[in-house]
Specification:
InterPro entries: TM_pro_TauE-like, TSUP/Inactive_protease-like
Oligomer: single chain
Pfam families: TauE
Strand content: under 5%
Protein name: Probable membrane transporter protein
Main location: membrane
Mean pLDDT: 82
Radius of gyration: 17 Å
Largest sheet: none
Number of strands: 0
Shape: globular
Membrane topology: Multi-pass membrane protein
Length: 255
């Protein structure tokens, strides 16, 4: 029989999958802070590095499930994804290594700041580029940075990838989200292997998160065109601000 804790973990994955696929964020912005605050309610402590390791499996699940739906809809720029994924994979491996050696407070602080930055972008609204134009030379280094953030923070890199694809590569916003989802799945494989080698990956927890994410990401990819973007972005922005505040309080306010 499935324990209450595992039901909660699957629920975390479900929410992460839906929001991750809709916004192309990978779901890690939900999984990492949610695991940090939900598991202690069941008497189970988890470090941020362990939460990031589990999140990598969730990101992989978002990439597999969400990208499959987007591919059927014809939204994924597969060629763009294959050309840019090596940058995110290399960056992801570097970020994963940093996640193994950096202090938890440093990782939590970077994560909280990225959450606040993501909330700002969502509230402001991404500048929609619907007309094709030549990509900027800044795209490769920017995608490498997205990979580093993915490996370090377990976020999938979509908080960086979507703006890069949309604003610098000239990819329309819905295709940018779909292509980001496709790329993050490829990047998460290498990230998860690094964390597994470091002994931080809890496979039962990862399986629970992945199960929820697989269901949620498929639903999120289908619902993306039906949900009013403004309402969803407002809700998600408030969620990001709240979780960032919780993380900063946990690692700094109680120091």
């Amino acid at each position: 029989m499935i324990s209450a804790m595992m039901v909660a973990v699957i629920g975390v994955g479900l929410l992460a999958g839906v929001l991750g696929a809709i916004l192309g964020l990978g779901g890690g912005v939900v999984v990492v802070p949610a695991l940090e605050f939900v598991l202690p309610l069941f008497g189970r402590d988890i470090t941020i590095a362990q939460a990031v390791a589990v999140s990598q499996i969730g990101v992989l699940a978002v990439g597999l499930s969400g990208a499959a739906s987007y591919l059927r809809q014809g939204l994924v720029r597969a060629r763009t994804g294959y050309l840019l994924s090596p940058y995110t994979i290399v960056g992801g491996a570097a970020g994963s290594f940093l996640g193994l050696v950096l202090p938890a407070r440093a990782v939590a602080t970077v994560f909280a700041l990225l959450l606040l930055y993501s909330a700002y972008n969502l509230l402001r609204g991404l500048k929609r580029v619907e007309v094709e134009r030549p990509p900027s030379r800044l795209v490769p280094p920017a995608m490498t940075f997205a990979g580093v953030m993915s490996g370090l923070l377990g976020i999938g890199g979509g908080t960086v990838q979507v703006p890069v694809l949309n604003l610098l590569a000239g990819v329309p916003i819905r295709q940018a989200i779909a292509t980001s989802t496709f790329i993050m799945g490829l990047t998460a494989v290498g990230n998860a292997l690094v964390y597994q080698a470091g002994g931080l990956l809890d496979l039962p927890l990862a399986a629970g998160v992945a199960l929820g994410v697989l269901i949620g990401a498929r639903a999120g990819a289908t619902l993306q065109s039906r949900i009013p973007a403004a309402q969803l972005k407002l809700f998600f922005s408030l969620l990001l601000i709240f979780t960032a505040g919780q993380l900063l309080w946990k690692y700094w306010g109680q120091a």
